[in-house]
Recover the amino acids of this structure.
């Protein structure tokens, strides 16, 4: 997913800017190194803030983790997946565009760190009810956006056995699994295969409705 650039260190009287810098720094750390592997003193150092400033904005690491999920991870899913799918002419075209963009970015970087949402879901969903709820809310918004687009594709047609919610779940699950495989192999090949197969499946399903 799209990475949000971290802000340069600013030592002006800018409480909101300082808070955003902390969240940016934590987002980069939590989604690559992991939540448990990122110590608060490291985040404080990387963000260039004092312990008092960190405690003022985020009295606990859990509070910082929730801010990362609700703000940055949700934003990453919105920018990388939801907005492009909604803007596309069809669901299949949107998914094809998303995969192509992600693959191109990973090839440019030369490394696969995984899906930020998936990384944190695997680590934190059983850790805390608030983490679980925040993560599931993002997955729900992601699936709903795809399902809504699928229904829009078929608005004037009908396929009796077509389940837009189920197909949306398949898309999210397939992408998440392909990204995990890409991370394990440090290769975009699983993403290329998954993107092609999902696009083909959706094109075939929606074309049935237009032929019916």
């Amino acid at each position: 997913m799209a990475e949000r650039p971290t802000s340069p260190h600013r030592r002006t009287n800018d409480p909101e800017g300082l808070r955003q810098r902390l969240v940016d720094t934590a987002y980069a750390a939590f989604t690559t190194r992991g939540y448990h592997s990122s110590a608060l003193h490291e985040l404080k150092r990387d963000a260039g803030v004092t312990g008092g400033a960190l405690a003022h904005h985020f009295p606990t690491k859990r509070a910082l983790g929730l801010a990362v999920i609700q703000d940055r991870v949700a934003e990453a899913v919105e920018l990388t997946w939801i907005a492009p799918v909604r803007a596309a002419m069809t669901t299949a075209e949107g998914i094809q565009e998303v995969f192509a963009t992600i693959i191109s970015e990973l090839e440019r970087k030369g490394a696969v760190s995984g899906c930020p949402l998936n990384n944190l879901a695997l680590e934190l969903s059983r850790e805390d009810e608030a983490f679980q709820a925040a993560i599931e809310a993002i997955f729900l918004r992601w699936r709903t956006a795809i399902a809504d687009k699928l229904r829009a594709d078929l608005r004037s047609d009908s396929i009796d056995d077509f389940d837009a919610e189920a197909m949306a779940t398949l898309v999210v699950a397939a992408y998440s699994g392909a990204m995990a495989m890409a991370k394990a192999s440090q290769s975009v090949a699983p993403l290329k295969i998954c993107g092609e197969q999902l696009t083909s499946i959706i094109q075939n399903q929606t074309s049935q409705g237009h032929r019916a």
Observations:
- Residues 5-11 have pLDDT under 50 and may be disordered.
